[in-house]
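Newbie here. two chains, one complex. Structure please?
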Amino acid sequence: MTMKVDPSVKWSGPTRPYDLIKELAVAVLVIGLLAAGLSFLFSSPDEKAVTLKSWAQTNPVDFAQTATGELAGTTTSASYGPPYNKAASGQHFGILKLQDWSGVRIPINPAKSFVLNPLASYNDVAGQDAVVTWNAATADQQTAWATGYADALGKAKDATAVADPSNLYGPVPTLITSLLNMAKGGALDGSLLTSDSTLPTNFTKPLLFLADSEGYFAAKAEEQHLGGGQWGVMNETGSWPGQSWLWLFSFWYQVDPFKSSDNADTLVMLLMGLFTLLLALVPVLPVIRKIPYKIPIHRLIWKDWYNKKL
Amino acid sequence: MYLAAIFNLDHPAHYFSVGPFSISAGNATIILVMVAIFTLALFLPFPHGKGDKK
């Protein structure tokens, strides 16, 4: 049954006075006191910033391996695809190639952006000469040097450099050692932050480089329960409560097929989009619209009104 | 100068885990408090203003 309401007819049902200003004043006061009181009692997270400097100083082996991976083109950012490069078409769902459609809007070549360009402006003659040697080589030669050195570093395990008496790795050992020194002193943070602008406000490059680290950055995230497979989106550093309202987004990443899918982000966003659509369409969905009649929580909220009706 | 918080939460959190589910003690506390406030709001009598006609 549908009921047509004429908007020009004055409301003839019951009315009650309502002091909106009073409610606003009370709400601001109560929330203000709560915020100040809880801040006083519990303070707030103040985690020390993770930087390329802290990475190079804390785990130089992982730094050297990751930097070599950038030269070899084997890191996550080197093979990510849009918006950074065309190395892959990225996440998709059927004919929906969302990542590919976004295009390369923030062009980043990890080898150049994270290793070669910073070293070219760093005050280390050996490093600068190594950049010249690298740039003069063919792409195949560069790949052979970098992948060979990545393998050697992987076998050496706890070493930040491997001796190269036969010159199998070309300028790569010098590049990596020089970059490690640059990072340890903090110059690499400054270089990546100011490579596109004089104002150090764009953290894209240092964050991408850090995110390629598996032994330092990923391990740090796992340690704090911030990993994708640990409901990390919901969590906060330390023991503070996090973003618990993101539980449903986070849930899908914990179960298959999303958990093991390369397109997990796209699948989860599409699924949540569908759920949001269903929520918006509740009033017109045949079975769902009857739920309030079966579970009448609204009758509890407006019990005065329903009691009077009875 | 920094004033230390009365309750220090700057230490690793405790997590409750069952199967694929995992929740920190902080998040669980907030959710339980929200449910408690909602339940109280359902059953506590609504305050009536002076001019409210019954």
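Moderator note: The two ends of chain A are 22 Å apart (CA to CA). Residues 234-309 of chain A form one domain. Thread marked as resolved.
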